[in-house]
Design brief:
Layout (H helix, E strand, L loop, with lengths): L27 H13 L8 H14 L3 E3 L4 H11 L7 E5 L5 H8 L3 E5 L21 E5 L10 H10 L3 E5 L7 E2 L2 E2 L6 E5 L12 E5 L2 H10 L27 H11 L2 H19 L5 E2 L14 E5 L1 H4 L5 H15 L3 E2 L10 H4 L27 H9 E4 L8 H16 L1 H8 L18
Helix pairs in contact: 1-7, 2-7, 3-4, 3-6, 8-13, 10-12, 10-13, 10-14
Bound molecules: pyridoxal-5'-phosphate.
Pyridoxal-5'-phosphate binds next to helix 3 and helix 4.
Length: 443
């Protein structure tokens, strides 16, 4: 058979340039709602029509009583942590593998993030690793539904109940995913979603906080509005009761997200079809480990993750090196691959240097601090994931099977020519990384 030369060593690319379309899909309906906002002149506040409408629509969609829409997922997480009644030095347990905001929201409230390793099957926090992390300072658990797959919520809720802790879902990557028939957002005491432009539900920027609990709702609302308690139907008193922030979302973002929400299920179905196709085909290639979705939940594929196993592929190379070689070769073929997080969360300088608010606060706070050493090797599953995973971008609408087929062809080409890829990758210094290339973001 005629052997195709890899693009990384001078052959032609497999994926035609420009066939991967960007996200979010923007329609005339989106344009109309934004113009309507502009023409209405009602551009800011907590009770503007699109903000209120988005909050109602999202609460209904998730199946919870209340929703607030702040300006980011990070703000929503901070509101939840604050509403949980966190005091300086209190601890919150989250996953060793996640985006920084799942942990930094705890620091924002002067609390101490504590990490538990992941379960390699789901790459979500491993419930079996949580209890050993609980101390008399622990107040909450933040499970993260990483890349769009719900965490093991029954086990997590049972631990929380036993130790009297609150559960805050970080659902920033999992809009519309389900666990035992219930939507993410309705699986703990509070939940937070991001609406940034990369997410399954986009507002450009924005966030969503949800809860069934009236008291938690009121606390979160005042945190988001300068610490003021504003009662419906009453005039604003301009009296802050406690420390607060200004987390209001823009009316434009709310309108855009609300318009996108009308098509969320349709778009999630396209992600599912694309990713299930990739899983079916890529799982047949020796050396590739595809995503496993337990029967009791659905995945909404914010990101499509694959892991590489050099030994299974027949190579005695360190997994990190092997992954970098394969990434370079795939990228040259036109597959948009690359990592976001390169290491477990606690490897980041903020945890290693512990400067905090200055003077080492919260860890060294003389009133409430506690010495915590964040040792990356204590999280072997997260370390191993960071060695061998990559993310495949472009799995979202409007992209379909045409692009996925080209991706599969590229994976097959690279894995059929690994010796050539290994030789050629030596000469390429640049490692592909996750970028916002397809997400309209500029950093
Ligand atoms: C898991 C997770 N948590 C929190 C956030 C923060 O969301 P935002 O960027 O809207 O602040 C993100 C966003 O990337 C995320 O992926």
């Amino acid at each position: 058979m005629f052997k195709k030369q890899l693009a990384i060593s001078g052959g032609s690319t497999t994926v035609p340039q420009g066939i991967a379309k960007s996200w979010p899909v923007i329609t005339e309906a989106d344009e109309e709602v934004l113009l309507k906002v502009l023409r209405s002149g009602k551009l800011w506040g907590t009770r503007t029509p699109e903000v209120v409408g988005l909050q109602e629509d999202w609460a209904n969609y998730v199946g919870v009583k209340h929703c607030l829409a702040p300006q980011s997922g990070t703000a929503a997480l901070h509101m939840a942590v604050a509403a949980a009644g966190l005091e300086p030095g209190d601890e919150v347990i989250t996953s060793a593998f996640t985006f920084i905001a799942s942990a930094s929201c705890v620091l924002h409230h002067n609390g101490i993030p504590i990490f538990a390793d992941i379960d390699p099957k789901t790459c979500n926090i491993d419930p079996k690793k949580i209890e050993e992390k609980i101390t008399d300072r622990t107040r909450a658990i933040i499970p993260v539904h990483i890349h769009g797959l719900p965490a093991d919520m029954d086990e997590i809720n049972a631990i929380a109940k036993k130790h009297n802790l609150l559960v805050i879902e970080d659902a920033c990557q999992a809009h519309g995913a389900t666990y035992k028939g219930k939507k993410t957002g309705a699986l703990g005491d509070m939940a937070c979603f991001s609406l940034n432009g990369s997410k399954n539900l986009s507002g450009g920027e924005g966030g969503l906080f949800v809860t069934d609990n009236d008291d938690l709702l009121n606390s979160a609302a005042s945190v988001a509005m300068f610490g003021e308690i504003i009662k419906s139907g009453e005039a604003r008193k301009y009296n802050a009761s406690h420390v607060g922030w200004m987390y209001r979302i823009q009316e434009f973002s709310a309108a855009f997200a609300r318009s996108q929400l009308r098509r969320l299920d349709e778009y999630n179905a396209i992600r599912k079809r694309n990713c299930e196709y990739l899983t079916e085909r890529l799982s047949k290639i020796k050396g590739i480990k595809t995503v496993e979705v337990p029967d009791d939940r659905t995945h909404v594929y914010f990101m499509y993750r694959v892991r590489f196993d050099p030994h299974e592929a027949g190579y005695d190379i360190h997994p990190r090196k092997f992954r970098e070689i394969v990434e370079k070769a795939l990228y040259a073929e036109g597959v948009l691959v690359g990592q976001s997080e390169r290491a477990p969360v606690m490897a980041q300088d903020v945890f290693q240097k512990q400067v905090g608010y200055g003077k080492g606060c919260p860890w060294k706070c003389t009133l409430a601090g506690r010495k915590v050493e964040y040792v990356v090797e204590d999280y072997p599953e997260a370390v191993s994931l960071c060695n061998d995973y990559t993310l495949v971008r472009g799995i979202h609408a409007p992209n379909g099977l045409e692009l996925m087929k080209a991706y599969v062809e590229a994976f097959e080409k690279v894995f059929n020519n690994l010796d050539e890829a290994i030789d050629a990758a030596e000469k390429v210094s640049h490692n592909p990384a996750y970028t916002c290339e397809l997400f309209g973001g500029i950093f």
